[in-house]
Amino acid sequence: MRGDRYPYIAWIVIVLAILAAGCSERPVERVPVKVVAAGSLLYPLAEAEAKYEQLHPDIDIQVEGHGSIQAIRQVTDLGRRFDLVVVADESLIPDLMYRPIGGSNGNYTDWYTPFGRNEMVIAYTEKSRYHDEITPENWYGVLSRPDVRVGFSNPMLDAAGYRAMLVAMLAGEHYQDLTIFPRVIGDHFDPPLTIENNGGIRTVRLPQVLKPTGSKVAVRDGSIFLLSLLEAGGIDYAFEYRSVAEAQGFPYVPLPDTINLKTDDQSDFYKKARVILGFPRFSQIGSERVGIPILYAVTIPSTAVRVEEAREFTEFFFRMSQEGGRGWPEPLDGTPVFPWSTKAVAAGE
To answer: For the segment 46-90, what is each residue's pLDDT rounded down to a tens digit?
Structure first.
């Protein structure tokens, strides 16, 4: 009996040794690269993240979405250390980030690189009231009907929000009907949002807090959050980016180039409209949002922790953006310029 136990004990020792060896081999710790981005970029960033992490299993791309203004404020106001900032309005980076870091001589950043265009559209569903009547010619008439509910994002937090207002203001110029903005948006807030005319420049000054009256207009923190409300039937139409509507499969009404904020050819016309943000802090750092063509841009804050990793992911993301595709902003022509030497490799390598 005693002799029979030795093989059993030896087997136990071997098994324990194998288990001990396995426990000693811990998985490689992944390097986090933290990205704060405009909500309209969550779809393309998710694609880029998945492909990049396949090629670089030691990297963990962590993406957090906000409205573009709120995304930047995560860094400048809340002091959070993100490695990459990607926004839907290139002008926000110099306006909000070209300023000194508290207790330092350096700015939050001193550069940005644009990478894509977009355009504003009117998204809807098959459940939307009058969806079988709306066209690029009559959309503002449909949206102004009393029983039609309209949504856009908060202009204090998100670029798509003040762009919705710019579109409605420019529509008044394009269609020669200055009642469009008040009928669709302005008259449905307390106090009402009114247009000032100064030398042909139309201006809307926003209060610190937007207070919709009734259910005609709904405001959400980011353009991406409007879509769940639209899908649920809480609103009939949403001012949205074309890429977001396409990514989520929503039908949409395209708008004329004179008002959709898409093309450089209409830059002078776009400048006829502007929105003054009511948040007090913006008075010192760029409260005026003028109508300009939509351009997405990226920067790496001076407070970034993983600078090299952020640069490499930025280059990869730009290469993917140049390929375009459903849900992506329209790519820009030419080669992007970064404040560092880039690696000339193709996306996916």
So the answer is: 999 999 999 999 999 999 999 999 999 999 999 999 999 999 999
pLDDT in tens, 132-169: 999 999 999 999 999 999 999 999 999 999 999 999 99
- CATH label of the domain that carries residue 300: 3.40.190.10
C-alpha radius of gyration, the chain, whole number: 25
* Among candidate residues 69, 49, 71, the one with its CA nearest the CA of residue 61: 49
The domain of 109 spans 31-117+295-331
Count of domains observed in the chain: 2
Establish if 343 belongs to a structural domain: no
Query: What are 167-189's pLDDT values in tens digits?
Result: 999 999 999 999 999 999 999 99
Same domain, 96 and 168: no
Please name the residues in contact with 261: beta carbons below 8 A apart, sequence gap of 6 or more: 119, 120, 163, 166, 167, 270, 291, 292, 293, 294
- Where b means 16+ CB within 10 Å and e means fewer, 229-259 reads ebeeeebbbbbbbbbbbbbbebebbebebbb
Give domain status of residue 133, yes or no: yes
326 within a domain of the structure (yes/no): yes
Q: Which amino acid is at 91?
A: S
Same domain membership, residue 265 and residue 324: no
- H/E element, 60: strand 59-66
**Residue 242 near residue 163 (C-beta atoms within 8 A):** no
Distance from C-alpha of 319 to C-alpha of 344, rounded to nearest angstrom:
10
